[in-house]
Amino acid sequence: MSALQLRQMTPADIPFGMELKTLAGWNQTEADWRALLGYTPEGCFVAEWEGRPVGTATTTIHDGKVAWIGMVLVHPEFRRLGVGKSLLKHCIAWLQQRGVPCIKLDATPAGKTVYVPLGFRDEYELERVETVARVNGETRIAGCQVQATECDGEAISALDNEAFGVSRRLVLQRLLGEHPDLCWTVRPPSFVLRPLEGFLLARPGANAWHLGPWAARSPEAAEALLCACLARLAGQRIFADVLVNHPARQLVARYGFAPQRPLTRMYLGCNDWCGDPALTYAVADPAKG
Ligand SMILES: CC(C)(COP(=O)(O)OP(=O)(O)OC[C@H]1O[C@@H](n2cnc3c(N)ncnc32)[C@H](O)[C@@H]1OP(=O)(O)O)[C@@H](O)C(=O)NCCC(=O)NCCS
Predict the structure, then answer these.
(1) What is the C-alpha separation between 230 and 224, in angstroms, rounded?
(2) How many whole angstroms from 47 Cα to the centroid of ligand 1?
(3) Architecture of the structural domain at 4-123
């Protein structure tokens, strides 16, 4: 029997997952792990080295078409032994057996060295940015209402689908259900007839509040959403993962966000459901897109 074995991850492994993500300095919470295990319970894995848990990886299937691999973490004492590569190969095989045509992930520079030899290709660059939120006043948009309550899940889901490429209803439902007070939308005047101009969701993290998904049809709508969010979280540390070649980067820089680290959005297989990156100001989370 090989020293390395892979098995399904269960809720009992969450403390181990938290230990690994803390060692890596990541922002996920126990609630994030629980959610990932809930989306695709049989698609989350633990690697064991001679019986000791040493690594994790999760998969999240969006609408049967696009799957995300996330939480690829290997204990520092067990790196460069092939654990990360084995976890990836296992996730890929598991997803391909289920007929998922497109597999994606958001790679750290260290992760990219594992993913490129497995066939992953770059889609675009992201940047983790951070700030301490300040109130910057309210930005108004002619005829539109920036609203922080009664967020409309259906309308948010429709714009998210346009931006992301496939439905990720479960992810949105969880964020809206757990943090209804951290949701902002920009509604056009005749909302019944026209889609949202933008939305922004936020959630707590272990080290900072995480801002995203954040989608908007115009820089003005995006800015109004950002102002509303910063006012609500004034004085708090905030992270966001923004697209690099995008107005989002200049916008967050104007509001005091500083670069923290790069990420690369990558795909394996076809990339037929790439959505509209122009609408995407910040992604939801590297672990699920
Ligand atoms: C990235 C990470 C998961 C890699 O795990 P690992 O078990 O050490 O990776 P593997 O041993 O399977 O490496 C497979 C190959 O990837 C490349 N590789 C992995 N880590 C590398 C590094 N630090 N530098 C250069 N190449 C590296 C090598 O080609 C390696 O093959 P080799 O050891 O035969 O040369 C691990 O370093 C880690 O947990 N990092 C912190 C969290 C993180 O960034 N995760 C990725 C999220 S996208």
Answers:
(1) 10
(2) 14
(3) 3-Layer(aba) Sandwich (3.40)
